[in-house]
Design brief:
The complex is a heterotrimer of chains A (256), B (114) and C (101). Chain A is mostly helical. Chain A has nine helices and no strands. With 114 residues, chain B is mainly α. Classes of the chains: A mainly alpha (256), B mainly alpha (114), C mainly alpha (101). Chains in contact: A-B, A-C, B-C.
Chain lengths: 256, 114, 101
Amino acid sequence: MRPERRLLFFVAAAAGFAAFLVWGLTGLPAFGHYRGPYGYLIDRLTVHYTHATGLVSAVNFFFRGFDTVGEEFILFVAATGLATVMRGLREEENEVSGGEAVSAGVSVPRTSDGVRTLALLLTGPTLLIGWWLTTHAQTDPSGGFQGGAVMATAVVLIYLAGEYLKLRRADPIVVTDSVEAVGAAGFAIVGLFGLVAGGTYLAEVLPLGKHIGAVNAGGTIPLISLCVGVEVMAAFLLVVSEFLGQTLVLKGALDS
Amino acid sequence: MSLFPYLVAAWIALVGLYGLVTSRHLVHQILCLVVLQSSTYVLLLAVGFKTGGIAPYFSDVSGRPVTVDPVVQALVLTDIVVEVAVTSLLLGLAVRAHRRFGSVDPEELRQLRG
Amino acid sequence: MILSDATFRPPTTAWAGQLLEVVLLVLVAAAATLVVLTRRPQRQVVVLSGYGLLLSLLFFALQAPDVTLSEMTVGAVVLPLVVLLTISKLKMQPGREEEKK
């Protein structure tokens, strides 16, 4: 189909789609006038059931915990899929560039001292923030999903400082792969403990804590949040290393 | 105002679709998909919003404050993380397609298939 | 008993918050359009991370601080980084354009 005809086709189809969409949207409650029971139910039930005061994490890791296991495995499968897609490419490139010789002593473009210093200085605080976010899911606007992303950013800062090749000796892809598996399995295992001890998958088996809204409140919520944080961090790092590793290998091959 | 946020979400979705259809570069196309997906965040959060409601975190449980719906926020939260993973997978496939066909133009990819 | 809250009436003095929401919604819609209309991926990445920041501000105004955090780290750091790496990878691979020369 020629571009002009395709655009014409799209405009006609989009007009119909937009009409249906807007018609459907007019049926929603007016903006700001929320109806529907779930929000109110969660408001009333969360503190009683979990002793946690962060409702969003309570929804994610307690009320719809089983659903979140599924989401977590989407992340896991996507990262694994990417690794599979890129692995074939990596082998092809290793043939071209002479294999491991490249990663041993290549001249990667120098990072400027300012960038290196700043990146390394920021690594510690970033990691700390990520850890804080991961472990305070039960009380504050935080949780494993955000904390994991921030912790991954901290490691990416090390990459940015030009230290990637030093880390590469530890083979980041194998390491992150294993860490990711530990995170994903951790969540599933917490659920299995619930099945054994409480009768249902992801049943609450830990003490809720005496004080509502304390850091040790929330039963399994902090534990699951930690697993999710580890999983998200490893998945993001796996993604970045897959792209970064190959780019550096190629750059090294071109430079030498 | 009662409908405006929903219309913004619909607009973002339509703009993203337009980009998907007319794109001539795989990376551009994938980023248009990101835009299309972001319309769901706006729609979900708009549906769960209460005028005057506060964020769903209780600092004082005795006061029974009015909070916005935490369920849609939990949905958006996981949605964003999954979006990144899926986008990365698509970008990886784009790199492979470029390797195989030597082009990132979706039009040319189709010609090469036959 | 629980559902009796469904008769919740929003306060009428919320116009300042509403103004902020409208401004942010307009900006987000404009930024989304700009992301799609920016055809060169190198430039599009920058616009996209700006769009991510605007989105996270909107989420903050909509009382979703956790989603704000998520969108900030993802939209402003992780996604642009991965896209930039992809672009540099595509540049280094021999494409058909280079072969023609």
